[in-house]
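FAQ: What does a ligand-bound record look like?

Like this one, built around heme C:
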Amino acid sequence: MNSVILLGTLGALYLFIIVSVPVKAPEHVKVVEEAPVTEVTKTEEAEAPGAETGVHEVATTEVNIERGRTLFMSNCISCHNKDPNIKGAIGPELIDAPLEVMTVKVVTGRYPEVLPAGFVPKRKTKQMRKFPNLEKDVPSIHAWIQSVRK
Ligand code: HEC
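The answer part, i.e. the structure of the complex:
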């Protein structure tokens, strides 16, 4: 009899612990599916800046300088110099390109149609290939380049 009570108590305790310790999702994971009240989800989204423009997703991808360096070394130095301060075999130095120019260049292979004030393209050629899959990594690549500026 005693053991039945003991088991029951332990069982209840176990359940209590399971129910009372909240399982926290990692911050970047949106707990949309699990939220029973859609109102809560909507409020959260409305508060997140840029949630509807897709900017939100890019903003949650942290700038990672080491990753930027790795991606640069594996994708860009066949044409650009390992040292982005100087020109490479085919591509010019990259140190002066603002992030917005670099983003368009990497995604489309072309310079933006409207250039930022004060920026002069280094070359008039159209030899660069595009890397659309690297779009969200351009801020990391750009940050690494600026981190080795001389
Ligand atoms: C196939 C060779 C090639 C590869 C690979 C390449 N580029 Fe280029 N890049 C060029 C050339 C050539 C130019 C000069 C303009 C042109 O011809 O497109 C250029 C220009 C640029 C510019 C403009 C610089 C300025 O100040 O005018 C940026 C920014 C740039 N590249 C970034 C990158 C990044 C980042 C990568 C790697 C993800 C990369 N490029 C890979 C050849 C390349």
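Follow-up question: can I read anything off the structure? Yes, for example: The chain has two domains: 2-59, 63-147.
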